[in-house]
């Protein structure tokens, strides 16, 4: 465990992160950025190596302060009802590589998944997406294991230290930012951009940028 955790957070600091996660989970569910019980989100407790993440199996609209789970950067559970999200390892890998990141948001958003199927990067077809997101690369899994996925995530984040979002093929959006709110805003922007790109593609105004598999 890093010595950051030696400055233990106050209960207020933990509750502040939990309430921020709750409001962003609620918003994502209400606008159908994530339906059902998929997706997950997490936030770092400022100044510590503690991460608070949604529990596995509960939907965004079922999140409570009790079932948001606190873990260390090494994945050790500190409190919370249930088990942390199955995507915990991906969240922790992002926090470890990017000290600037305070929030990670992940959703199974349909337009982004559709666009990822025929592109290597989701085209940033609006000025807003260009300025706020830069690139939206697509991650294609080289294998079934978590380790294989983490290796690609780490490669993508190391290659571009300013990366803000990525879309995993057949899975969904990962967005990471200086606040969980900004991560969720950026995920909304990815989904909106993908919807526009899809409309342009089906009307014949946008070609696929996917390279053939080697
Ligand atoms: Zn997922």
What key phrases describe this protein's structure?
214 residues, L-fuculose-1-phosphate Aldolase, 8-stranded mixed beta sheet, 6 helices, 8 strands, 16% strand, binds zinc ion
What does this structure look like?
By secondary structure, this protein is α+β, with helices and mostly antiparallel strands. It has a single domain (3-202), classed as L-fuculose-1-phosphate Aldolase, CATH 3.40.225. Helix content is 38%, strand content 16%. The protein has helices at 11-30, 88-97, 110-116, 127-133, 146-159, 180-202; strands at 40-44, 50-54, 68-72, 77-79, 103-107, 138-139, 165-168, 172-177. It has an 8-stranded mixed beta sheet with strand order 4-3-2-1-5-8-7-6, sandwiched between helices. The radius of gyration is 17 Å and the shape is globular. The N and C termini lie far apart (41 Å). It binds zinc ion. Zinc ion binds at residues 38, 87, 106, 108, 171-172.
Continuous helix count: 6
Please report the distance between the alpha carbons of the first and last residues.
41 Å
Helix and strand string, N-terminal first?
HEEEEHEHHEHEEH
The CATH topology label is L-fuculose-1-phosphate Aldolase
How many domains comprise the coordinates? 1
Backbone shape: globular
Order of the strands making up the biggest sheet: 4-3-2-1-5-8-7-6
CATH homologous superfamily designation: Class II aldolase/adducin N-terminal domain
| Helix-strand makeup class | alpha+beta
Please write the CATH class name: Alpha Beta
Can you give the mean pLDDT? Answer: 94
Radius of gyration: 17 Å
User: Tell me about the biggest sheet?
Assistant: 8 strands, mixed
Estimate the strand proportion: 15-25%
Number of strands: 8
CATH architectural designation: 3-Layer(aba) Sandwich
